[in-house]
Design a protein that fits this description.
Helices cover about 30% and strands about 20% of the residues. The protein is an alpha/beta fold. The protein has a single domain, classed as Adenylosuccinate Synthetase, subunit A, domain 1 (Adenylosuccinate Synthetase, Chain A, domain 1, 3-Layer(aba) Sandwich). The strands form 3 sheets. The protein has a 10-stranded mixed beta sheet, with helices on both faces. A two-stranded antiparallel ribbon has the order 3-4. It is globular and about 55 Å long. The chain binds inosinic acid (IMP). The site of inosinic acid (IMP) has 23 residues, from helix 5.
Length: about 325
């Protein structure tokens, strides 16, 4: 029992949503809570029947029909996105939102789109998150409790998280990635509008640190970055296409810039900030295509084995999950 925090080590888009969905089913969790910034994040997971699910507001833990899904009070809520996901995934009976969440309005989105600094220089998703957070800090934002469309879902998520975590496992799904953190990135202004570490995720949902059971740090085997800012070992577009490993953003559809290998110093720094107890190593099939869709540990190739060993040396934590393809079942659970 306790809370399992899922955070991304680098620049996001590493498959946190898939990890959250898998753990919700494997551990039959009663509650999954979204931490992180807000609707700028896009989690996607392909179900076993091939259906592609994309979510920006609610945690993907809803894949388990028993799991309630909630949004912590530190996360920005766009009522339209919330309502659309509740309808699309049929979550009216089990979606919750903290009554204190600050709201993103159409004006916030329009303001970000007009802002050349955000749109062009920073490469923001222009989903209104930074503008809404600014209003929250200036104490002039609307909160979830004021919006009629959210009335049926309101609760005190902090109380629920801490109560449930005393008896059972609660998943806390972070968003973005550690190196996009507002106050920990060396690359400001190429950051998002809040911190994205494990400690930030705890704070976003009001989790008492004594109830943390594990921090699962998701490490993308070949890191990607969308928007501006440095990306060590960046591959040229032609090479990305040649290898057949092109990716596109869930929220914006923009091509993701892709690196040819991990930067070990940056991974060490992310480890220092997050204190992971477990690692999920994702997109292993992009390192070695022979791993694509592998579901058994016997299929681990020498190249991926060497990568696992190095990731474990740098992070000091065991690699417990290997992601090998887009489908929910395309993974190897080394803890099972
Ligand atoms: P914003 O948070 O939408 O203002 O975007 C600021 C920076 O963070 C831009 O470089 C975005 O591409 C990046 N960013 C925001 N959300 C995500 C995400 O979910 N995945 C990856 N990058 C993101």
């Amino acid at each position: 029992m306790g809370a399992v925090i899922i955070v991304d080590a680098l620049w996001g888009d590493s498959g946190k949503g898939k990890v959250c969905a898998y753990l919700a089913v494997r551990d039959d969790v009663p509650l999954a809570v979204r931490a992180g910034v807000g609707t700028n994040a896009g989690a996607s997971v392909t179900l076993e029947d091939g259906t592609l699910v994309k979510a920006r507001q609610l945690p993907t833990g809803w894949i388990n029909p028993r799991t309630k899904v909630a949004v912590g009070s530190g996360v920005l809520v766009d009522p339209e996105v919330f309502a659309a996901e509740v309808a699309e995934f049929d979550l009216a009976e089990r979606a919750l939102v903290d009554s204190r969440c600050a709201l993103i309005t159409p004006e916030h989105i329009a303001a970000e789109r007009r802002d050349a600094h955000l749109a062009a220089t920073v490469g923001s998703t222009c989903t209104g998150n930074g503008a809404a957070r600014a209003d929250f800090i200036l104490r002039r934002a609307q909160q979830a409790r004021e919006h009629p469309a959210l009335a049926a879902y309101l609760t005190d998520v902090a109380r629920q998280v801490n109560t449930v975590a005393r008896e059972e496992v609660v998943l806390v799904e972070g968003s973005q990635g550690t190196l996009l953190s507002l106050a920990f990135s060396d690359e400001y202004p190429y950051t998002t509008s809040d911190n994205c570490t494990a400690a930030a995720a705890m704070d976003d949902v009001g989790l008492n640190w004594r109830l943390v059971q594990d921090v699962v740090m998701v490490v993308k085997a070949l890191p990607t970055r969308v928007g501006e800012g440095p990306l060590p070992y960046e591959l040229c577009e032609r090479e990305v296409l040649r290898r057949g490993i092109a990716e596109y953003g869930v929220v914006t559809g923009r091509p993701r810039r892709k690196a040819g290998q991990l930067d070990w110093d940056l991974l060490e720094y992310a480890t220092m900030l997050n204190g992971p107890t477990q690692i999920a190593l994702t997109f292993c099939d992009h390192v070695d295509p022979a791993m694509r869709g592998a579901r058994h540990r016997d299929a681990i190739t020498p190249a991926v084995r060497a990568l696992i060993d190095q990731v474990e040396r740098v992070t000091g934590a065991p690699v417990v999950l290997l992601d090998t393809g887009p489908r929910l079942g395309d993974l190897i659970d080394l803890a099972a």
